[in-house]
């Protein structure tokens, strides 16, 4: 009794704060926690019931691990896992190298106004949606009107049916991703280069160090912590693909699925086009669980390097 | 990099050849980033006939404004999509700022007894999520948001990561002493938040607000999932739909007279590119603000407590 009284007293004492937290808390409940409970449908043969959400979940038949067994008995599970991982690995490492090189270059350019102008340009793709980027790509790759085939034609090279030849797409996707992300990331690194104490460079100059030596001995070592952390955090998200990139840029072209299908697009198509809801939910849960493990693991490693920059 | 090693020892600046090559690299990359947009602008200003003969060209044979003319004549559906996008962006940004600033402020206050619980409640959603299928079912079946404008607004309203950023911002830029002084003057918690805390936290809110605005303006995914009603289609999603129906007609071109008819009813290449330009222009105009706040947002600091 006393504890209940205490509880209500606490509620009353914190009522303004609780009121402020309420809308957000409800949002998390509906958009995050209920879907977490909803992952049980990965273990069910899901049937939409007219009596609404709870009835659908309760009335659907339990099938245990069947959805997972189906998923992993097909080639799909292997293909989507491989694509998701390999693309993300390429994005992380090539992206890192290019962004750091660009950030160093931007920081060294003598004319600061020019450097600002370059930054403004390379920041732009980050602000555009994948739909727009999809149109951009199309203006280059369209088989009858695209710029690339036009150039090929004028040089007497046979034109290419870009949207049905899967062998080019790993390169195209990596290129488009880098085009969109490198500018933004290099500005992140540039911000931390700007935070480096200038007197270090002055001391190095007095000792006669060249610019290259300065970059190697001062800039890069001082960037190492942020590079490590950004990379490890990215590795924590390696099981999640950028849906827009893999859906919009190849224009959902079926002949390209072998190299463009990733976990996220697979789940989407299972839900919206093929209607294999159970299997799609199973793939989604597989992604969430492995993703969770990877976030925890990479955070554990970040903590070992640098407690301040760990996520938690 | 190593072939470009210094020839001379310049103590203060880059050697001239290196400065030139650095400028070239950065300049070319920067141009590469802007080029596709310029190219699409050029296509949209090309004469449709010239386009049919030559394909997309950097320097068109014949310039023309007819694509824009067509888009403005077409009017209705484009204007409606613009309207949907603007409504969703404005209302969405307001709602998400309201929800997130309240939540983050409460969680930042040491006097709030349940702050750790609610901080974790938000934080955990960054680590684990139910995935697309259960979310879709909750939104459509439990909340019944399918084909409503709320399906475009609510799913993007709250983001745990932004709450973390805002909380850090409150706890570093709003000193406890100010809140205490408000209390001594007899102001209630709400008054303190509105009169004392909000003005101090405007830079942080502006940054998060711009992130939200951009997220709403560029969103097509929620429309893809939840919207079938043509009157509720936002701009980005409309661009996507035109493209999809083009492809559908191309792929099913067996009945050629019928598909030709259908093709003619859709906007031509130049008009579609004109729509792409019109969907991007607001971002280009807002760009200077975005750039400033995004960079300050990057340096807003560690997310952690």
UniProtKB/TrEMBL annotation, chain B:
Q: Does the keyword Transport apply?
A: yes
Annotated ranges, domain ABC transmembrane type-1: 82-287
CDD domains membership:
TM_PBP2 (cd06261)
Q: Which domain of life is it from?
A: Bacteria
Q: What is its main location?
A: membrane
Keyword Transport in the entry? The reply is yes
Q: How does it sit in the membrane?
A: Multi-pass membrane protein
Tell me the keywords, alphabetical order.
Cell membrane, Membrane, Transmembrane, Transmembrane helix, Transport
Q: Name one Pfam family in it.
A: BPD_transp_1
Enumerate the transmembrane spans: 20-45, 82-105, 117-137, 149-171, 192-217, 273-290
What does the UniProt entry say about where the protein is found? Answer: Cell membrane
Any Gene Ontology CC annotation:
plasma membrane
Q: Name one GO biological process term.
A: transmembrane transport
Q: Which family does it belong to?
A: Belongs to the binding-protein-dependent transport system permease family.
What protein name does the entry list? Carbohydrate ABC transporter permease
| The organism's taxonomic lineage, starting at the top | Bacteria, Bacillati, Bacillota, Bacilli, Bacillales
């Amino acid at each position: 009794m006393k504890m209940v009284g205490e509880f209500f007293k606490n509620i009353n004492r914190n009522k303004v704060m609780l009121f402020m937290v309420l809308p957000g808390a409800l949002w998390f409940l509906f958009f995050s926690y209920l879907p977490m409970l909803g992952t049980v449908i990965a273990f069910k043969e899901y049937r939409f019931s007219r009596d609404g959400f709870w009835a659908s979940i309760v009335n659907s038949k339990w099938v245990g691990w069947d959805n997972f067994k189906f998923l992993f008995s097909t080639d799909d599970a292997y293909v989507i896992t491989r694509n998701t991982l390999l693309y993300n690995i390429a994005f992380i490492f090539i992206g890192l190298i290019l962004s750091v090189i660009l950030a160093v270059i931007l920081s060294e350019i003598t004319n600061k106004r020019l450097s600002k102008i370059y930054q403004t340009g390379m920041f732009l793709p980050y602000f555009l949606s994948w739909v727009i980027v999809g149109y951009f790509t199309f203006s280059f790759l369209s088989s009858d009107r695209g710029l690339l085939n036009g150039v090929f034609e004028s040089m007497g090279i046979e034109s290419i049916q870009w949207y049905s030849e899967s062998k080019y797409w790993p390169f195209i996707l990596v290129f488009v991703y880098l085009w969109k992300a490198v500018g933004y990331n290099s500005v992140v690194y540039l911000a931390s280069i700007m935070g480096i104490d200038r007197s270090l460079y002055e001391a190095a100059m007095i000792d006669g160090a060249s610019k290259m030596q300065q970059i190697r001995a001062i800039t890069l070592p001082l960037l190492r912590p942020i590079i490590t952390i950004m990379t490890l955090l990215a590795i924590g998200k390696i099981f999640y693909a950028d849906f827009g990139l893999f859906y919009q840029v190849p224009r959902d072209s079926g002949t390209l699925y072998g190299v463009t299908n990733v976990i996220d697009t697979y789940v989407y198509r299972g839900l919206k086009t093929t209607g294999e809801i159970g299997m799609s939910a199973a793939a989604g849960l597989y992604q969430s669980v492995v993703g969770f493990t990877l976030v925890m693991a990479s955070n554990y490693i970040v903590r070992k390097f640098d407690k301040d920059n760990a996520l938690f | 990099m190593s072939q470009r090693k210094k020839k001379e020892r310049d103590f203060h600046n880059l050697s001239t050849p290196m400065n030139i090559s650095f400028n070239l690299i950065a300049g070319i990359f920067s141009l590469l980033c802007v080029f596709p947009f310029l190219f699409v602008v050029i296509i949209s200003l090309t004469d449709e006939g010239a386009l049919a003969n030559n394909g997309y060209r950097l320097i068109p044979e014949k310039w023309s404004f007819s694509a824009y003319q067509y888009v403005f004549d077409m009017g209705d559906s484009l204007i409606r999509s613009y309207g949907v996008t603007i409504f969703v962006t404005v209302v969405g940004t307001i709602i998400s700022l309201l929800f997130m600033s309240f939540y983050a402020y409460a969680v930042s206050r040491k006097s709030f007894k349940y702050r750790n619980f609610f901080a974790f409640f938000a934080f955990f959603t960054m680590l684990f999520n139910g995935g697309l299928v259960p979310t879709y079912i909750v939104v459509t079946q439990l909340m019944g948001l399918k084909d409503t404008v709320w399906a475009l607004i609510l799913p993007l309203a709250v983001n745990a990561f932004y709450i973390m950023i805002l909380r850090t911002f409150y706890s570093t830029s709003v000193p406890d002493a100010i809140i205490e002084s408000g209390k001594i003057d007899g102001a209630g918690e709400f008054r303190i938040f509105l009169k004392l805390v909000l003005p101090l936290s405007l830079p942080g809110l502006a940054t998060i607000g711009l992130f939200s605005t951009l997220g709403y303006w560029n969103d097509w995914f929620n429309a893809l999932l939840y919207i079938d009603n043509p009157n509720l289609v936002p701009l980005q999603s409309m661009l996507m739909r035109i493209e999809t129906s083009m492809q559908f007609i191309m792929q099913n071109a067996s009945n050629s007279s019928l598909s030709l008819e259908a093709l003619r009813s859709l906007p031509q290449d130049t008009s579609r590119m004109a729509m792409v330009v019109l969907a991007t222009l607001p971002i280009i105009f807002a760009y200077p603000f975005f750039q400033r706040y995004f960079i300050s947002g990057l340096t807003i600091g560690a997310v952690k407590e």
